[in-house]
Amino acid sequence: MHIRHGLLAATFAGLTIAVANGAVQQPRPAPPAQTPPTQAPPAAPPGQTPPPESPQPQPGGTQGPGRGGRGRGQLPGVFPAMQRPLADPAVLERGKSMYSVNCTPCHGADARGGQLNGPNLLRSQLVLADNDGELIGPVIQSGRPERGMPPFPLPAEDIKAIAEFIHSLTGASRGQGAPPESGAPPPNIVVGDATAGQAYFAAKCSTCHSVTGDLQGIATKIADPKMLQNAWVSGGLAAGAPAGPVIAATVTQPSGEKVQGRLLRYDDFVVTLLMEDGSLRSIRRDGDRTKLEIQNPLDAHQALLSALTDKDMRNVTAYLVTLK
Ligand code: HEC
Ligand code: HEC
Fold this sequence. Notes:
Largest sheet: 5 strands, antiparallel
Number of helices: 11
Number of strands: 5
Number of domains: 3
CATH class of the largest domain: Mainly Alpha
CATH superfamily of the largest domain: Cytochrome c-like domain
CATH topology of the largest domain: Cytochrome Bc1 Complex, Chain D, domain 2
Order of helices and strands: HHHHHHHHHEEEEEHH
Bound molecules: heme C
Mean pLDDT: 77
Structural class: alpha+beta
CATH architecture of the largest domain: Orthogonal Bundle
Strand content: 5-15%
């Protein structure tokens, strides 16, 4: 039972992230559409330089946008699972009742494995490879007696209906192996103590934010508590704001000359800055003799993560949702 609870918890965590990205995919009765959604970079207005992603210093490695791991356009993807046309509702209904009588005790009502130790069928390679019962059928008919599954000498039509029913479950998964939609409302994540959250905010956040200033009405601006939580934990990155944070950089050249600007990109060899007058300036890096200092305003949020407990996170969210 502990393992099942663990799975459930992990699933909810995944659900939260998927929902917060606004990317939950409803099953579509369309043939396999398994390519991950392409994520177009935010388009810049004509004549402007596109905003940089958030580069992060990585000692020794190649540095630059796309390597920092928290730039925009890198939200965890949602991969539609086995999308396929569903069988006739009457067939599914029949398959469902045959399945619940014969298979549920071992494989579970949602096919994620059951009390009597049948494996998870949503993740079964055999089920995933099956088209319309040609692989599932023989297993049902002959069973695997030596491994704990008895044979079910059912008529071909029933077997096909069961196979279609199992496919309808995999087709309803949000991602491969994820549980099918239950139709139940998503869990309420506002479970913290708002007063404790307020105290935490005063201690840890008020140096940079104010609830009567920049965060005034944040819960109106971001009405969904899950989105709000993702927004504050990430420092706004997950909320889908169009422009990234402005990252400033100072380059000190071997001559001692300092150049300051908005960091657009950098690697081991070149740093490109957007200067105050709108011009671009690329500076060659001469190993350690060229010093690069990056001031990423979101470093504070990154630093927060290592100290943030689940409890603090719930409390702060419970407080922030009151800021209507
Ligand atoms: C008494 C428990 C039990 C019942 C009832 C049962 N199964 Fe199974 N089933 C198992 C076990 C255990 C395995 C794993 C066998 C193995 O390890 O090869 C299995 C394997 C399977 C597999 C193969 C999975 C794979 O990836 O190899 C399929 C498909 C399957 N069952 C479908 C069904 C269907 C459909 C029904 C109902 C008609 C059903 N089973 C009823 C216990 C059961
Ligand atoms: C050292 C400064 C600093 C600290 C401390 C800090 N933040 Fe931030 N936070 C920022 C910056 C910079 C941004 C980027 C967005 C911006 O420029 O306003 C940001 C963004 C946010 C956003 C997104 C705002 C939006 O409109 O999308 C929220 C919400 C937020 N922070 C909440 C918090 C909370 C809650 C804490 C404390 C647990 C906290 N921050 C601690 C600097 C800080």
